[in-house]
Amino acid sequence: LPFVHWEISCFSGIDFEIIIIDDGSPDGTQEVAQQLEKIYGSDKIVRKLFLFPSGTAYIHGMKYATGNFIVIMDADLSHHVRLDFMYSPTVYRKQKEGNFDIVSGTRYKGNGGVHGWDMKRKLISRGANFLTQVLLRPGASDLTGSFRLYRKEVLQKLMEKCVSKGYVFQMEMIVRARQLGYTIGEVPISFVDRVYGESKLGGNEIVSFLKGLLTLFATT
What we know:
The chain contains eight helices and eight strands, in the order αβαβαβαββαβααββα. The chain has about 220 residues and is an alpha/beta fold. Helix 2 links the parallel strand 1 and strand 2.
């Protein structure tokens, strides 16, 4: 809990709210969210429990978001959440500078990078992005990352258009955005791998990604 207070302090001077979509897993998320709600108020910390989600966390989060911009970040310990909080004001400033519809964190541009991955994982990620760049020409350097800022109305429109699941979903969001003429800015980020848990990336996910890539190539 103490480090969460520090991360929230990064939003000083920005009108914000944090929406926590939890699936009821016994990892202490609800307990921490309840404590934060008591400290910062229910107008800043909005917590929602969905035991049997009918859609993605994005859809549920949008229902309760009151601002003009939505920053998406994973909270399943797949990477260091602290860094996402630190970068959030940066992507917000980037949006203001270029009036972008989307600002995406990129590991493959400027001083961005990845820490904690073995060579196999790095090759898979680089290979996926290379194939996507060659086939789809998306206009963005990192297609599989999930740390992004969206205009709320843009995110809603993209969610209506996107049909992919899993790892292909993030890629399709950027490809559809380019197809619809939305502007995309990028901010270099350092990605630090999970400390707890295990990655779900395996053979089935790789095959699914390749199928999704070919489908997008054929339909965009």
